[in-house]
Amino acid sequence: MALDFGFGCVAGVTGTIAGYPFDTVKVRLQTQTLNHRLYSGSLDCFIKIAKQESILGFYKGMTSPMFGVAVINGLVFSIQNVSKGLFDNPDTYFSLAVTGAIAGCVQSFICSPIELVKTRLQMQGIGQQRKLFTLSTRLYKGPIDCIKKSYTRQGFRYGVLRGLSMTLARDIPSFTAYFPAWQFFVSHFSPTGKEADMPIYMSLIGGAFTGIAAWTVSYPFDVIKSRYQAARDHAYKNVWDCAVKSFRMEGWQVFTRGFLACTIRAIPTNAFTYPVYSFLKRTFDTPLDEIDETSVTTKIITNSKPMFSSRTSTPAIASIQSI
């Protein structure tokens, strides 16, 4: 479990760096309203951020998810692997969906405050030149300051955990789809049906496919979460009020706003996340139950020193089970 956690952390950081600029575009589009529309679409948003706020504008609030996503991915892969013990056959689509749902539920309690901080920091200084943003008085100085002020204003439940219900509503179906989607891709595009035998470029494509599938089933909940977390404390009574008011004012299209940016973001983020995790696990994690028994038997028979015959063996490099 410790190795799964470590591999997940490395994979999470890699994916975050690759996809964070598109996440900023996604959040900006999700939270703008018809009365205060700054961007006409994903490309327009991307260009304006680059011109007005420089390249660093895309990475506002990245400190929080950089460390948070590492922990979250570590938890997700660890919990998902541990949950496999609940099933006799853990590699069926049903088993993968259930273990993914469990992992998504648990990690939401950590993910929610991290995304609260990320969203609020991403919304600061919209349209400001980098120098002006640095010199201006900002509501939040950084991630810690954002958490402190959120707690001071509304406490832990309604401040720090603001939007938790929507994070759960998003992540449970998202991870329910995530692991079966990867299994589906491996089964159909690996020459042998095993991920270890897929070319690197196919693993990257598979990671992107997996991420897009996971976001597609959960995206409307992410829109509500972002709008609720970014809004003033008393703008909405609760997440349901946020969803109803958003629908009444802007129609059903509001729940798809920023989806293109999200899809583009999912490609580099997930193209690296799962393949990196799988590569690390195949390379460094060799389960004891997959030791090459033939090699062990041969060494026991041929070894002339009995003191080593019962203790020495050469484990074969084992590949991770397809998940």
TrEMBL record:
GO CC aspect terms: mitochondrial membrane
One family name in Pfam for this protein: Mito_carr
UniProt keyword annotations, A-Z: Membrane, Mitochondrion, Repeat, Transmembrane, Transmembrane helix, Transport
Sequence intervals crossing the membrane: 58-80, 92-114, 159-180, 200-221
GO molecular function: high-affinity L-arginine transmembrane transporter activity
Cited PROSITE patterns: SOLCAR (PS50920)
Main location: mitochondrion
Cellular localisation: Mitochondrion membrane
InterPro entries hit by this protein: MCP, MCP_dom_sf, MCP_transmembrane, Mitochondrial_Carrier
Biological process, per Gene Ontology: mitochondrial L-ornithine transmembrane transport
Coiled coil: none
Chain positions of Solcar repeats: 1-86, 91-188, 198-283
Annotated membrane topology: Multi-pass membrane protein
Family: Belongs to the mitochondrial carrier (TC 2.A.29) family.
PANTHER family hit by this protein: MITOCHONDRIAL BASIC AMINO ACIDS TRANSPORTER, MITOCHONDRIAL BASIC AMINO ACIDS TRANSPORTER-RELATED
Protein name: Uncharacterized protein
Source species of the chain: Rotaria magnacalcarata
